[in-house]
Amino acid sequence: MEEIHEASQVSELGTDRENHNNRRMEISYMLRPILKMMKLAGEFYGDSSFLETPLRGSNYFSRIYCTSVLLGQCIIFAQAVTSIFFDGFTQTENTYFLLMFSIWYLECMGTNTICLFVLPKSQKQPSRMSKLVSSLFTKESDLRGLTKRRLSSLLAITCCAVALNSICLAALDFYRGISVARFQPWNGFLAYRLLHLVFGVFNSFAWVLPVLLFCVVCTVLSGMFENLQKKLSTQNSTSINMGSLRQEHHKLCETVALADKVFSPYLFVVISLHIPLICFNFHQLLKNSNEDNITYIITVLYWWMGLSGEVALILMFGIRVNEKVRARVVIFNKLSSMLSFSNSNCLM
User: Fold this and answer.
1) Which of 79, 108, 195, 269 is the S-S candidate for 206 at Cβ 3.0 to 4.6 Å?
2) Containing structural domain, residue 302
């Protein structure tokens, strides 16, 4: 009998390990392409292999690369703020244009800084993101809503958004002669203009990639609660183990709390700066709608739609996870009251 019991324990451990490896592969396939793109954009320098222990080897080149990107973002932000004091108060149009770019540069610089501190996984100390990913590996999740084809489509849309934004910046500079580097005291020097265009591409990545990561993580979290809902629906009301289900729900809520620690600084920066950007872009869109500057109107319309859509995505995915958490609490309370009522009837 003892040998049979030991054999069953070994088989259960093997099954659990296999399920754990399968979950690791599924979640790694979703997160690794995004982190690799963020690494290319200078927003991530850590290990993206999702091994138990990060690969040995220095990340000095990646760190220097990310530091250079962040330094360039700081430089173009400082140039935009400086231009406000030189040319920003001469005309109202200049004021709004320079304010828009200053806020956008500040947002992208803040987003990049947060990603560099929150996301990397190192051997010395686990980051917030590494703790979240480790927690995701231990939870079962229904990931049918995020297929490989859909994830590839999202990555393609992200690259298209970066390309379109870069084209808009280049068109404004070379076709319409509108750029931060064309104001005082930079006087439109080619080196300054190219600096803004190059790091404008990096800012475009910082604008869209963290949102994609947030949406994918929220999808995984929603799938975990949907998997718990399946367990509740398949079990008989008389044989439900409320203690184990509540414990599993509590562990899922702890994972959501880890995700909140990862994304709350980013969400604070994005929401607090997206709102004035949306207002400024909408103002510019209305003010220039009757003019012949089609390039500027199309660019501002694209920015306004992109900013509004990004806020809508953040709210939609965040509210979905919040509803999943609260819905399970309501279900547990109803089940508890039903079980206590049935037990009282049995005693009667």
Assistant:
1) 108
2) 34-347
